[in-house]
Amino acid sequence: MSEPGDDVLEALRALGAEVAELLRFEHESGGIGLLEHPIHAERDGASERTARPERVRRGSPELLAPAPEGTAAAPARGNRSSALHEVESLLEASRRARARASPAPIDPAPADVSREGERRVALATLAAEAAACTACRLHESRTKSVFSRGSPDAELAFIGEGPGQNEDLRGEPFVGAAGQLLDRMIEAMGLTRDAVYIANAVKCRPPNNRTPQPDEVRACAPFLDAQLDLVRPRVIVALGKTAAERLGCVVEGQGWRGRWNEYRGIPVMPTYHPAFLLRSPEMKRPVWEDLQAVLARLRAAR
Ligand code: URA
What we know:
With 302 residues, the protein is an alpha/beta fold.
């Protein structure tokens, strides 16, 4: 039977789970960034260093999952106020971490409604043109073209390589495993997937997920150029070498990741692709450093 206050406890647990998700990307990227102290997670039975801060240990995902009442994770009702206090202090720590990580929202410029409408119509028209495009061989095997995801008002855009199988079926970029990791990276930045703009260098899936060929990237270039001209994000993140090359961030013989470039006057940070991070999780740390630099640049742009 439920008791008064159970719903509050449930709501706090749900919020706690959200915080845990934020912390998870931190764990995986080496515990840098949002938290003041390193976190050393115990995952898959492999215990790393143990000196993690008391508050973080209390807020670990294991503790936030519902557990039978009366166990250490679910205090008996007599301890409810101390449990609430614990969750509240965790949430407060998370709020402070988010405030440090996420740029303060800026007031939008006074809306020019007709220009705004025209911009949206222009983006929708481009998407329809991409769906009918036959400029390169990739159209022959596509199920759906994949134009964009997220907000056309975004300050931050992520540009990937090209759709994979899931994206080709859904007609939306970054919805597969790499997309889920990208969503976690975006959340760890204190942003949401709907608040950023996401697109690819090519709009149709290359067969067997091969890298798009240079002539395919060139054939699709007018779409991405027009998208970025219409959205005009303050900062772009290029995910992987294909996107980095497309946005002019690669000089042969030089390292390309983590170096600021410019594309049509917009700062671009090239970093590793989330699909690469799935295969090489040790590279999450440099990527997280790149994303921190992006957040700093967004703050400075205000
Ligand atoms: N990889 C990409 O580069 N883009 C997608 O949309 C999905 C995976």
